[in-house]
Amino acid sequence: MAPYIFAAAAVIAVIGIIIVFKINLDKIKENPDLMEKAQTNFFIGVAISESLPLILIIYAFINIQEEPVPVDELYIPALIVIMMMVFATFFIFLQQKVDVEEGQKQQVISFSMIALALANSIPIIALVMMFMNIA
After folding, report:
1. Residue 133 · residue 64 · CB < 8 Å
2. Residue 59: what pLDDT?
3. Second label for 5, Cα 20 to 30 Å away, from 24, 57, 64, 125?
4. Domain total of the chain
């Protein structure tokens, strides 16, 4: 049960961060002078969207069973988490290339790299926690 809670935490975190990223990246593309305000809003949105996944990770960690989990029970949750990481990476790089003027390119790239690191943080934690309890 705990591996699926980790996977759910990763899904919720990635989807929330992607939504906040898209909203703030559109603001940066419209007006590059609002970069600082968009980044502030982005970090606040990430903190809010990561609150539930962090609670889920703590809950799953508390409820990890005494006996180790067989590896075959981790295939599906680990695949879900890895697919979310791939989706986040693909989505962020795609948004970085679409409708970006030459003068905005550096700001969009730096914002995208920050978003990529934050979007993959909870899935990495989920993978590590899943594989800590392998038989």
Report:
1. yes
2. 92
3. 24
4. 1
Closest CA to 118 of 96, 85, 90: 85
pLDDT score, position 6: 93
- Cα gap 77→71, rounded to integer Å: 11
CA 16, 47, 120, 60 torsion-angle sign = negative
- Domain coverage including residue 39: 2-132
Go through 23-45 and write b for each residue having 16 or more CB atoms within 10 A of its CB, e for each that does not: ebbebbbeeeeebeebbeebeeb
In this structure, what token pair is assigned to residue 38? 């968009």
Kindly list the distances between the CA atom of residue 20 and the CA atoms of 55, 106, 121, in Å, as whole numbers in the listed order: 20, 20, 15
Which of 88, 76, 51 minimizes the C-alpha distance to 130?
Answer: 76
Instruction: Select the more confidently predicted residue: 2 or 20.
Output: 20
- Quick one: average pLDDT of 23-35? 90
Is the Cβ–Cβ distance between 1 and 75 less than 8 Å?
Answer: no
pTM of structure: 0.90
DSSP-based helix, strand, coil % in the chain, nearest 5:
85, 0, 15
**Tokens 């690191």 label which residue?**
117
